[in-house]
Amino acid sequence: RQRPAGRFVPRRDQQCPSSHKHFTVLANGHIWCGDHSGGDFQLAHQPPKRSYNPKVGEGRRMSDTQIRSIPNRLDNRLRSAIFSWQSLLLLVAIAIFVANSFATPYFLNPWSISDSTFNFTEKALIALAMALVIISGEIDLSVAAIIAFCSTMMGFALQFGVGTPGLVVIGITTGLLCGAFNGVLVSGLRLPSIVVTIGTMSFFRGLSFIVLGDQAFKGYPSSFAYFGQGYVWWVVSFEVVLFLIMAVIFYFVLHRTTFGRQIFVIGNNPVTAEFSGVRVRRVKFLLFCLTGVMSG
């Protein structure tokens, strides 16, 4: 039921999300540069400039003869790039490299740098998916427990003679199921994500302890170790290559697709996003599933 513009809408009226109207921010394009070439967008109507007429009385208003121009600080891309968090992190990384190179002569050795990447590439892969969850306004604290449970399931399957391809499928599938479980509780039952993931963190760790106990699964095939310790070329490890590929994919999805725009809108205001036609619960469910897959 439609009401005239300017009329008060009482509380008893049902508010339903729109299924066909979307924000212009959901159009395809680059969200940083303001490139809206992928879809239509609206511009604010600007009244025509009025020319100065000396015959008009002195009592005219200032707004009739002058139009104030507000500069856009984002137009200077060089300045925005210099004064950004990315530039600050780059300077910190350069400072760390310089300080460590003076502290030990072996720090800049290619093999030493390559081996140091083994300590953070797994966490970096999970951080890619976690970033999308945080942008949407949620959090997942159970990723470490999901990693432990996936490892337990792969070790359990190894005892029955499952090979490397089967172990990879089992790990990813287990992570997907764990992420879907979190997604159902958060998006389906509308429970706070921090409360849900704290509970599932203990739940997944408990399942791992039930299956594994105080023992350890051993005897993984050598081909399985390639995913964590293998080299693609010279000092370039497989984990680094996988991380770079996934980083490019996540960047494209987040900044160049409608799905990425929906994540930003949900994080800004989920109620407004839902009433603009964005399926908020489905997007959040997919994000938790994605976090589970990356953890597996």
Quick overview of this protein structure:
By secondary structure, this protein is mainly alpha-helical. It contains 13 helices and two strands; from the N terminus they run H-H-H-H-H-H-H-H-H-E-E-H-H-H-H.
Task: Describe it.
This protein has 13 helices and 2 strands, in the order H-H-H-H-H-H-H-H-H-E-E-H-H-H-H. Mean pLDDT is 80; it is low at 5-9, 20-25, 27-45 and 56-65. Strands 1-2 form a two-stranded antiparallel sheet. 58% of the residues lie in helices and 2% in strands. With 296 residues, the protein is mainly alpha-helical.
- Beta-strand segment tally: 2
Pairing-aware structural class of the strands and helices? mainly alpha
Fraction in beta strands: under 5%
Straight-line N-to-C gap: 48 Å
Would you tell me the overall average pLDDT?
80
Q: How would a crystallographer describe the biggest sheet?
A: 2 strands, antiparallel
Helical content class:
55-70%
Order of helices and strands: HHHHHHHHHEEHHHH
* Radius of gyration, whole Å: 27 Å
Arrangement of strands in the largest sheet: 1-2
Q: What spatial form do the alpha-carbon principal axes imply?
A: flat
Low-confidence stretches: 5-9, 20-25, 27-45, 56-65
Question: How many helices does DSSP assign?
Answer: 13
